Amino acid sequence: MCRFGPSMKFLLTTLLGCLVLALASATDPKIKWCVKSQSELNKCNKLSSKEPKLVCLLQPSVTDCLRSIKDGLADAITVDGENVYKGGLKNYELHPIIAEKYKKGQEPCYAVAVVKKDTHFTIKDLKGKKSCHSCYKMSGGWNLPIGRLIRENKIIWEGVDDKSLEKAVSEFFSASCVPGISKASYPKLCKACKGDCSCTPNENYYDDEGAIRCLKNDGDVAFVCHNKIPVDEKPNYELLCVDDTRKSVADYKSCHLGKEPGHAVISRKDPDLSNGIFSLLSKLTPSDLFSSEGGKDLMFSDSASGLIRLPEITDSFLFLKKEYYDIMFALKGDPLSAKDSSRRVKWCNVGHDEKAKCDNLQLSDVECLMASSVDECIPKVMRGEMDAFACDGGYLLNGHLCDLVAVMAEQYDNDLCYSADTNITSSYYVVAVVKKGSGVTWSNLRNKKSCHTGLNRNAGWKIPNGLLCSGMPDCTLFKYFSEGCAPGAQLGSNMCKLCKGSGKSVGGEESKCKASAEEMFYGYDGAFRCLVEGGGDVAFIKHSIVPSYTDGNGPDWTKDLKSKDFQLICPKFSNEAKEIDQFKECNLSPVPAHAVMTHPDVRKNVVSVLKEAQNTAGRRLFESPGGRNLMFSDSTKCLQEIKGTTKEFLSEKFVDIILNSFKTDNNSPELVRACTLNNYVEEV
């Protein structure tokens, strides 16, 4: 038996205490906030006295803070849109994690080009005019309007290797007042000023009000924030729009040169750290966070009323949105590469099998690229890294909510491919298929085994989920069925138990439950095969799949299948089954056809290239090795251009069904939540 003296006992007690403190510190870490001035440090220290987990770090500038956060010396800072952009660049790789929510009437600035109503020029006629700006490098007076004019090729600038941005602007306008610019370096940009050309009261045309005075007395156009035009003077002015039209001052939301995003807290990409930062801030009162004793907008905006936790997927691009991101990209000196003039369409293929088919088609104007899922294709097309992909209606809605457009639809009726009616588009029915004689009906589906095209897919998941779980709190298909195959579900969950993988003897398990053709039970044909071979009791697919994979149709695995051996079940006939050809009476819902989705900027080119591809490749465009619906559905007869809007193509009823499945943020896709945050303006 070991005996310890008093000094040893004291040492052990001390060591044990240190260990407890270290463990507590590890599980309850400090949050290091970066501040840029003594006034911010004073406020931060005051907040720290109320929440000791907050530690304050003073740095000389925002750039020093970004560097400190990247290196782990600090954890967070609140910044404006320009610095969200800067923090997202490769040398920092920081992400927005929390957004400010603003009080009513405090929406961010829309940069507008204001002109006198009795003039008649449009934005294409701006060259040679006199311009008035609120202040150099301010959002409304410089960054947004100048960046947009470069982006739209109104101001021609080849980048910093050619000349400075300021010189390009001075060559565009005949004279300007840009308070804050170097008068010695760019005298023409101070030529229209009435004072010392500084961003101080020493310049009569300084700030938004000054820019309006400049317009009234000497200028042709004033670049200001929409809410700074004097109310009693609004009838005297109009706005220049980027489409070469003019609109009323009241129409600033549809006629502006850029919108300033709200401020955001940025940090390293670390979910645990982000959760810790939001948890700490949630413990502090709004009156403490959003007030600035001895200054203005210290740490947070004084106009903010709360904070919003951003979805984990959010990066600087998703937060800022494409318009602002492109403006910043142009303003920083690389405007030409922001636009790709190439005719080649970069096609987003989901998985290796789709890319192999795309490569084999050898289409001269199509570049075949790859992503792991449709969810990955959407942001890549948003960013311009890729141009187009085909998907079902559920993903079409997600893309629509992220500002993409549906441009060409699959047509499954060969006769309609040659119809003179250009408004005809195809659709299909979602059906629930069971084996004849199984005794499975709509009323006894609970706890059965299910086969789905993919997690969060339209026909295979969202529609049955909306019907089976309607009015049932906390219901999901994970809980409704005992087990199943829903490719894309978390490996190890009950919705991966029936999945098969690639079926290959070597490496087959690596593909199990993947949301791509690498999983044998993925997609419409895969869900049907899950019913046939995988032990499923019901498959949620589209109505044309059973006829296309039975009675001598389809690949080798279907050669012995007879359509008469399968039936349909549906809510309308809850206790009985119907024959396969009765899909119009017994279905879960009609839904729009699959379609090609792209970004509005490249719409015309994508449509043109796909029409040419149809002529060149013919039926090969819609054929897949093994009948796997690669790139397009194998049942497609042709692609038809969608003439109306994406929402019109989807139909109001379908949109309502899917949006109803987004009743809570927990049910809506993370990407959709990132795309649809309402600019953080509080609705009252």
Q: How many β strands by DSSP?
A: 26
Helical stretch tally: 21
Strand content: 15-25%
- What is the CATH C level class of the largest domain, in words? Alpha Beta
Radius of gyration: 30 Å
Q: What ranges have pLDDT less than 50 throughout 5 or more consecutive residues? A: 6-26, 335-339
CATH topology of the largest domain: D-Maltodextrin-Binding Protein, domain 2
User: Approximately how much helix is present in the residues?
Assistant: 25-40%
Helix and strand content put the structural class at: alpha+beta
Biggest sheet, open or closed, and with what strands and sense? 7 strands, mixed
- How many distinct domains? 4
Mind explaining what this structure looks like?
With 684 residues, the chain is α+β, with helices and mostly antiparallel strands. 31% of the residues lie in helices and 19% in strands. The chain has four domains: 151 residues, D-Maltodextrin-Binding Protein, domain 2, CATH 3.40.190.10; 150 residues, 3-Layer(aba) Sandwich (D-Maltodextrin-Binding Protein, domain 2); 130 residues, 3-Layer(aba) Sandwich (D-Maltodextrin-Binding Protein, domain 2); 165 residues, Periplasmic binding protein-like II (D-Maltodextrin-Binding Protein, domain 2, 3-Layer(aba) Sandwich). It is built from 21 helices and 26 strands. Helix 4 crosses helix 10 and helix 5 packs across helix 10.
